[in-house]
Amino acid sequence: MFPLPLLLLLLLPYPSSAADFCVADFSGPTSPLGFSCKKESAVTASEFVFSGLGAAGNTNNIIKAAVTPAFAGQFAAVNGLGISAARLDLAPGGVVPLHTHPAASELLVVTQGVISAGFISSANTPYTATLRKGDAMVFPQGLLHYQVNAGGITAVAIVSFSSPSPGLQITDFALFANNISTPLIQKVTFLDAEQILKLKKVLGGSG
């Protein structure tokens, strides 16, 4: 049995040199590991709350879709925690084209409407599903995936990621929204020049 003084010592909070969190300090330097940490004494409870996912995003765009992010750049408290979230709004006819998140896996939960979704494995095997309210689907890190509104009303989903900064690369925009030359795109995609130029015109590319 422990002597009383030792027992009392064991019951005291154990001091730790490790921080419990790293709320982003947007005024400090950044690194591949994320934002600098705000001093704990300057952190308030409100910084652990994000209220932006309750409002619909603006789907008045070419893909009829909107993503409202709660990444480290918008939600300082997720910095360094390995998680983040977003809201996805898909108007009727809306689509999130093939894209990847280089730094995170994704979990999507439908809260309204119907979404057709899927991803393509590194073995080029497609995995597709039709998701309704309450359904969830996971998209492994780095794999091409998509979401399409498959119903007659606006579809809504809440998405979580395994990184505070998941990254995003949309295939169509990577190919046709910049100045990569048309002959080069022909070689790497097997598309004809007429189709490439049409897509560049739609997405703002040149070359």
Automatic annotation (TrEMBL):
This is Germin-like protein. It comes from the Eukaryota. GO terms for cellular component: apoplast. Oxalate binds at residues 101, 106. SUPFAM superfamilies: RmlC-like cupins. Mn(2+) binds at residues 99, 101, 106, 145. Disulfide bonds join 22-37. Residues 51-197 form the Cupin type-1 domain. GO terms for molecular function: manganese ion binding. Residues 1-18 form the signal peptide. It comes from Dendrobium catenatum. It is found in: Secreted, Extracellular space, Apoplast. Keywords: Apoplast, Disulfide bond, Manganese, Metal-binding, Secreted, Signal. The gene is ABP19A. InterPro entries: Cupin_1, Germin, Germin_Mn-BS, RmlC-like_jellyroll, RmlC_Cupin_sf. Belongs to the germin family. Its main location: secreted.
